[in-house]
Design goal:
single chain; alpha+beta; Triger factor/SurA peptide-binding fold; Chitinase A, domain 3; four-stranded antiparallel beta sheet; 11 strands
């Protein structure tokens, strides 16, 4: 699998985390109907009037105190990643969710400690330094930034410690018992070969679990998350703090997958109709609601044209802001005619010099490194051809001329070991969800 920022830093594997608990088994005589499995009254009489405006700010989890400062600093990470100001109602919802996340994080660390798993400070600091480097900052600069936004390095390091501890615990308690047969892997390899040339998808996900009792509230929560994402909120930040899928640790990143790996015909249909950059949801699925973002797509076992290595000439001309509009328009027209008269890259430099244009050579640049609006245009050119002019009189006008192109070789796809690791990851992640659910059920939690 591709290693994105979080997986590079924490060694976390991105795999499908859509496991859901299904109610099975026949109802015994006299048991509650399926629509009301707990046999609750339709109109319960409340002995105390609930106040929806009251939210518990802190908690004590098996003796460990989560303070208001812990909550504030973790919320600040979400707020800073959001490009729009959160309303009071949205902020209240974020704080409630972050508190739940802090409780889960504490349970994970405590479970690891119970198994004598120790995450050394040096390892946490090293990971923190890599996080800073990924953001083009030194550790001390990262600490200063976190302080400016109302968070702290201690808060981020606590989150890092929790993720490291949880992954190590899963390797010790879960991974050891996961078995994948050679027949399963060979079957998947045959399916991949049969699907050669079809699309595969790079997905990011957010999964919110729901029961019949809280389904309406979870759906409303998912709809609010969608609204924030459409307004520019960071998908990865929301996934890390709100998603209940195992991919939350890597910002919801499912990596490149094939539709069959989703394991749900409904989701296969939805994703198969999506275009790169599209956000869809919330989608009701067994066990909850799913929000999905299609980062990119390509064809299975086929070379991606955007991986072609290009040799380009960038020919650009600037304009004098003090000159009259007529003079600049005449200069632009001369430039356009001069570009049309170029006969391949061999004549580009000479003609450009007569026009007063600058030429910049880019000998090794991948097509995917170009702006998306230019990628398809460039890939349709033959050597010696140029793009239509683009720009303006204010910022200058330029063209890109294709001088060479080395197409990528066809992809061989994942090998036997890589596919086995993917299947193992999926099973480990599903088991991890069950493990965390058990920890919640056994926990002693007081709210202050």
């Amino acid at each position: 699998m591709n290693a994105h920022i979080a997986s590079k830093l924490l060694g976390l594997s991105a795999a499908i985390g859509l496991a859901a608990a299904a109610h099975t088994g026949a109802l015994a005589q006299g048991a509650a109907p399926a629509a009301n499995p707990l046999g609750l009254p339709e109109a319960p009489t409340m002995l105390a009037k609930p106040d929806p405006n009251v939210r518990k700010a802190t908690a004590v989890v098996n003796g460990y105190v989560i303070t208001g400062t812990d909550l504030d600093q973790r919320v600040a990470l979400i707020v800073s990643a959001n490009q729009t100001e959160l309303s009071a109602e949205e902020m209240q919802r974020v704080r409630a969710q972050v508190l739940r996340n802090l409780i889960d994080e504490t349970l994970q660390i405590q479970a690891a400690e119970a198994e004598e798993i120790v995450i050394e400070d040096a390892e946490v600091n090293q990971t923190f330094a890599r996080v800073a480097a990924q953001n083009n900052q030194r550790p001390e600069d990262m600490e200063a930034f976190l302080g400016q936004i109302g968070s702290s390095s201690a808060s981020l390091k606590r989150q890092i410690r929790g993720e490291l501890a949880w992954q190590r615990l899963l390797r010790q308690k879960v991974s050891f018992f996961v078995n994948v047969s050679a027949e399963e892997v060979n079957e998947l390899m045959e399916r991949l070969e049969a699907s050669k040339g079809t699309d595969e998808y790079w997905l990011w996900e957010i999964f919110l679990s729901a029961t019949s009792e809280n389904e309406a509230a979870v759906e409303a929560n998912a709809a609010k998350i969608m609204e924030q994402l459409r307004q520019g909120g960071s998908f990865q930040a929301y996934a890390r703090q709100f998603s209940e899928a195992s991919t939350a640790a890597v910002g919801g990143d499912l990596d490149w997958i094939y539709l069959a790996q989703l394991g749900d015909p409904q989701l296969e249909t939805v994703v198969g109709q999506m275009e790169a950059g599209q956000l869809v949801g919330p989608i009701k699925i067994p066990g909850g609601y799913w929000i999905v973002y299609l980062r990119d797509k390509r064809q299975v076992l086929m070379a991606d044209p955007r991986d072609a290595m290009l040799s380009l000439k960038q020919i650009q001309i600037g304009f004098d802001p003090a000159a009259s509009n007529e003079e600049n328009q005449a200069k632009l027209q001369a430039f356009l005619e001069g570009v049309q008269s170029m006969r391949g890259c061999g004549s580009a430099n000479d003609i450009a010099s007569t026009l007063g244009a600058n030429v910049v050579d880019n000998d090794q640049i991948r097509a995917r490194a170009l702006p998306e609006a230019l990628q398809n245009t460039i890939l349709q050119l033959q050597v010696g051809e140029a793009t239509p002019p683009f720009g303006s009189l204010e910022e200058g006008v330029r063209v890109l001329m294709l001088c060479g192109r080395d197409d990528p070789e066809s992809s061989e796809g994942p090998n036997f070991d890589e596919l086995m690791a993917q299947i193992e990851d999926e099973r480990i992640n599903k088991a991890a969800q069950r493990y965390l659910r058990d920890l919640r059920n056994d926990a002693y939690i007081e709210y202050n």
